[in-house]
Design a protein that fits this description.
single chain; alpha/beta; Quinone Oxidoreductase, Chain A, domain 1; Rossmann fold; 2 domains; seven-stranded mixed sheet; six-stranded parallel sheet; globular; binds NADPH dihydro-nicotinamide-adenine-dinucleotide phosphate; 2-alkenal reductase [NAD(P)H] activity
Length: 329
């Protein structure tokens, strides 16, 4: 990161530099590991870490001059930790760089299904997949036959939520920002950029109203959803990507519907659900192998392309899960 960011993230806010690699053997006595980064993930929350916050957040802000970090898929090169050995495949927090020294490898997850695409561990088998799974099943407790709306439905999280909702037997509608991205195979879909009136689009898709709204974008979409919720509906507040680059976040006009429709809107954070990860991994790997779910990825090659790839999240250019292939093995 070159500097704290204001407004829409730009390539000038980041730079790719060449420095000498760290020693690839962990020092004697260290309990850390050295990893080779194979894939690194682009996630919307990274933008929030690029702004300097006055109050502490759930995760520290990035510091200008330091290497960006995020979830990635890695191969262990050397280890001072009894639970890891050279050659292990893991995923977890790492640097946007070719090699990273990780001093707290306890935070890493072992990859138990290397027969599936390893890149999936930045997406459907990693943090975004767990977000979809826990956010959908744990927060609104969905039932068969319920009406479910998902914004950001073609993204890393949204496409998984929609498929899980279909498996549950729900009626599922998604919105995305292009006609191409609005072909999910759900029950219905719309391109929100083409709709003059979002409230009317939702009325058209849900004449009987929405039971569960899985919120990924916030702002105008949330405003349009609130009057379309059914009495006693539930909203999973997972993310609000439409707000992340705004200096002045948009106000929501229709909040009073929370009162009149007795809605429950609940903030959700995946960090609270990592203890369920390996159970989730088994279930999702099973769905993938049985062909019950699929996953769309948008992969760019090499760290030089990483800054532009991150920006694609906020310009709507990413199609599916955005990630960077740093090295193939
Ligand atoms: P996505 O892959 O969905 O993000 C990229 C897409 O977001 C873009 O392609 C674009 O698609 C859409 N987008 C960008 N800007 C806007 C905008 N102004 N208005 C509407 N849509 C926009 O991201 P993820 O699936 O990784 O994450 C989805 C949400 O979940 C995010 O808000 C994220 O912060 C949040 N999240 C929350 C977690 C938690 O624990 N609570 C964990 C992980 C993610 P389009 O063309 O459709 O506009």
């Amino acid at each position: 990161l070159k500097r704290y960011v204001t407004g829409l993230l730009s390539e000038d806010d980041m730079e790719v530099v060449t420095v000498e690699a760290p020693p690839l053997d962990v020092p004697t006595g260290s309990k850390g590991v050295v990893v080779k980064n194979l894939y690194v993930s682009c996630d919307p929350y990274m933008r929030n870490r690029m702004t300097r916050h006055e109050l502490p957040s759930y995760i520290p802000d990035f510091v200008p001059g330091e290497v960006l970090e995020n979830f990635g898929v890695m191969k262990v090169i050397s280890s001072g930790h009894l639970d890891f050995k050279a050659g292990d495949l893991v995923w977890g927090m790492t640097g946007w760089e070719e090699y990273t020294v990780i001093n707290n490898p306890e935070s890493l997850f072992k990859i138990n299904h290397p027969e599936l695409p390893l890149s999936y561990y930045t997406g459907i088998l990693g943090m975004p997949g767990l977000t979809a799974y826990a956010g959908f099943f744990e927060v609104p407790k969905p039932k068969k036959g319920e009406y479910v709306f998902i914004s950001g439905a073609s993204g890393a999280v949204g496409q998984v939520v929609g498929q899980l909702a279909k498996i549950t037997g729900c009626y599922v509608v998604g919105s995305a920002g292009s006609d191409e991205k609005s072909k999910f195979g759900f029950d219905d879909a719309f391109n929100y950029k083409k709709e003059q009136d979002l409230e009317a689009a939702l009325r058209r898709c849900f004449p009987e109203g929405i039971d569960i709204y899985y919120e990924n974008v916030g702002g105008k979409m949330l405003d349009a959803v609130l009057p379309n919720m059914r009495l006693g509906g539930r909203i999973v507040a997972c993310g609000m990507i439409s707000q992340y680059n705004l200096e002045q976040p948009e106000g929501v006009r229709n909040l009073y519907y929370i009162v009149t429709k007795r809605l429950r809107m609940e903030g959700f954070h995946v960090f609270d659900y990592y203890d369920r990860y390996y159970r989730f991994e088994e279930e999702m790997a099973g769905y993938l192998k049985e062909g019950k779910v699929s996953y769309v990825e948008d992969v760019v090659e090499g760290l030089d392309a990483a800054p532009a790839a991150l920006i694609r999240l906020f310009t709507g250019c990413s199609v599916g899960k955005q990630l960077v292939a740093v090295a193939r093995d």
